[in-house]
Amino acid sequence: MPQIFAKKARLADGWAQNVLLDVKDGRIVGLRTGVAGGATGGETSVDCLLPALANLHSHTFQRAMAGMTEYRAAGRESFWTWRTLMYRFLDRLTPEQVQAIAALVFVEMQEAGYASVGEFHYVHHQLGGQRYDDLAELSARIAAAADQTGIGLTLLPVLYTYGGAGQQALAGGQLRFGNDPAQFLELVSAAQGAVAALPDDAQVGIAPHSLRATCPSDLAQVLAQTPQGPVHMHISEQPAEVEQISTWLGARPVEWLLQNADVNERWCLIHATHMTQAETIGLAKSKAVAGLCPITEANLGDGPFNGPAYLTAQGRFGVGSDSNVRISLTEELRTLEYSQRLRDVERNVMVLGEGSVGETLYLGAATGGAQAVGRDAGEIRIGALADLVAIDSQHVSLCALGDDKLLDGLCFAASDAVVTDVWSAGRHQVQNGRHVARDAVERAYRGAVAALVADL
Ligand code: ZN
């Protein structure tokens, strides 16, 4: 049986020294602390073991656009270069490219310390909207990339039926996203078939894209026919969206959803950036997870999350890399806190009462992220999936810190270079800081993007 020995580990109830874990069928089945003499020889030995996070929100194909949209076109709205390029990508993207890009993204996520991902997958069809022979062709490509890289996949096929609030027709690049509820449910079932070939921890949820891309009756129908699994939805990302939904449905997006759907632990509301105090408290009380994507939200100029009120109301949260413009767990967490500090002109905001901000951010995102992607993970304990990350606490950026400051160091002083090992449900994918499949995956990615950008 595979064993992992750690000089120290952050367990559910605090730090422990000389920890030996037994792992079987992807789960932690044995856990001993204070193991005399340390390593016994047969196990993998690491310095400091933490529960690995789930990256709860990603659109993998957007990784290939990173660095291409940081240009302001005179006389255009600031979002224009980003959206224009995204649609140009959609005019070209092939199934092979979808897989090659996703595989690189999954390698980068694991090297950054994430063990699993919620892939919010919305490109389903051929150019112009025609179905592939296999309705779930592109979902199967995401599943294949997960298989290549060993990441724990929660695939979230996206319901995208309308081009804008009030049931506007799809147009242009959006045609590749489109399904009505009946075809969407067929797609989900086909995606489940594709994911069935992966290890047991992989699963399929659903993702109604946003209130503007569905309508109340379609949403109710799809929810009624999907009684289990994670439900993710983009919500309240930009003020214009809040205005459009308020005009159409007579309530702000989060307000409307809380009143009209049974929002509970299965749900993850992505962004939830622009909320009133009442919406913030309502979301917290629902026990759903707020899916925060601080780097992308900063990159797109969305605005900061209402952190203090949400934490005070015991709200649950996790983080995702969304556009994948930059995949870095440490930067994601510090950007979340820094967005709060810049707005409030204050320090140490994302912590309730008194305590370590790093612990609040890291451990909160670990349990919240696991809930959002439907994984029994987020803590190191017997029975949980072995979603684990090892860091080098003696790295020069951390070596002066005691255990009680280590997660503060990770969140504010370190880079992802401190990650030495990552296990996704026991699969040891990152070893000595490098993903075991990096070379082949990187080669395929370089070929795919060279072809993709050749005639942009
Ligand atoms: Zn998104």
Summary tags:
456 residues; alpha/beta; Urease, subunit C, domain 1; 8-stranded mixed beta sheet; globular; binds zinc ion
| Strand line-up across the major sheet | 3-2-1-4-14-15-16-17
**Structural class estimated from helices and strands:** alpha/beta
Major sheet: 8 strands, mixed
- Poorly predicted parts: none
Task: Kindly state the percentage of residues in helix.
Answer: 25-40%
What is the averaged pLDDT score? 96
Q: What portion of the residues fall into strands of 2 or more residues?
A: 15-25%
CATH fold naming of the largest domain: TIM Barrel
How many domain modules?
2
Ions, cofactors and other ligands present here are: zinc ion
Number of helices: 14
The CATH class of the largest domain is Alpha Beta
In whole angstroms, the N-to-C terminal distance is 51 Å
